[in-house]
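Duplicate of #3305? Posting structure anyway:
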């Protein structure tokens, strides 16, 4: 078997591309590309091609040493044909990722959902190792999840199972990037927190987060953490509100699916422990008593690399 695979985590604000050792799961080299300002299908393909070329050049590894390329995308995917059906946060629809990458590199290409690949990574080498019954929930630009039962991903009838971010939490609520209103993602994601803070600042609310926003910078999870450490009233209020909604979503998972473990990951979970601790405490309180007592929570342990590591093993998917 060839030693390496390329894993790609295509998110709403960045593309992370890594060369992964198939025996150990270790990341041998990685390249990051920003996507926030350069969205759309042509730009996304261009950045992926450039990123893989950079990765190969920096590592000195040739395509002859690579088993496959795996891509996890933040959106709905056609796994069989390798097509990104829809990714509102990337402004991409009906993008044939498999065809574009296979034609360029002459390597087999596999496509999955971004949280699906994170679940695979955490199951093989991370927080869910040894578990075959768990749900993985990642909170970042959006809110996504993947369901694992008997050691296998549950895809559902149309391959879209696990879209917890698009569970309706308010029938007449905020607009969501998917086109609906009142989705959990519109209330509990980092993007939702960012919009709430920015809206309050425009109305004249005071916040120390302004100290970090010079030069037109966007609000990041790290900035949110620093503001909370400084006991900023506005940021704490917005994060607490998001936690209230996310904990309700997790309680729904606990009551409906009854998993043994929920793995929480993504930039917001990783950076803001206040958000993580508050969310899991509230999730237990909102769940039915018996499953609430038994449910385990863990933070994703592979950090930024959980997705790329999982993507590198999409060829093993059954």
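Output from current build:
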């Amino acid at each position: 078997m060839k030693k390496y695979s390329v894993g790609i985590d295509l998110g709403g604000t960045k593309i992370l591309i890594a060369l992964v050792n198939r025996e150990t799961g270790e990341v041998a080299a990685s390249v990051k590309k920003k996507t926030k300002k350069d969205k759309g299908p042509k730009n996304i393909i261009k950045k992926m091609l450039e990123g893989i070329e950079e990765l190969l050049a920096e590592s000195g590894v040739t395509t002859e040493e690579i088993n496959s390329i795996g891509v996890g995308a933040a959106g709905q995917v056609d796994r069989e044909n390798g097509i990104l059906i829809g990714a509102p946060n990337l402004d991409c629809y009906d993008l044939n990722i498999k065809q574009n990458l296979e034609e360029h590199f002459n390597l087999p290409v596999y496509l999955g959902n971004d949280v699906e690949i994170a679940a695979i990574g955490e199951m093989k080498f991370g927080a869910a190792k040894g578990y075959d019954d768990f749900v993985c929930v990642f909170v970042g630009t959006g809110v996504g999840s993947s369901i694992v039962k008997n050691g296998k991903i549950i895809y559902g009838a149309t391959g879209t199972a696990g879209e917890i971010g698009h569970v309706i939490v308010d029938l007449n609520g905020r607009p969501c990037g998917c086109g609906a209103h009142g989705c959990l993602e519109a209330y509990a994601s980092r993007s939702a927190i960012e919009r709430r803070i920015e809206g309050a600042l425009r109305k004249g609310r005071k916040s120390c987060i302004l100290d970090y926003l010079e030069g037109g910078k966007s609000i990041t999870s790290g900035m949110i953490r620093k503001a909370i450490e400084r006991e900023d009233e506005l940021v704490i209020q917005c994060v607490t509100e998001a936690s209230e909604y996310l904990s309700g979503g997790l309680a729904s998972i606990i009551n409906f699916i009854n998993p043994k473990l929920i793995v929480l990951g993504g930039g917001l979970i990783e950076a803001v422990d206040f958000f993580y601790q508050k969310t899991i405490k509230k999730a237990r309180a909102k769940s039915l008593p018996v499953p609430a007592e038994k449910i385990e929570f863990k933070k994703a342990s592979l950090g930024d690399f959980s997705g790329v590591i999982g993507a590198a093993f999409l060829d093993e998917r059954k």
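Confirmed duplicate; merging threads. The chain is about 40% helix and 25% strand. The mean pLDDT is 93.
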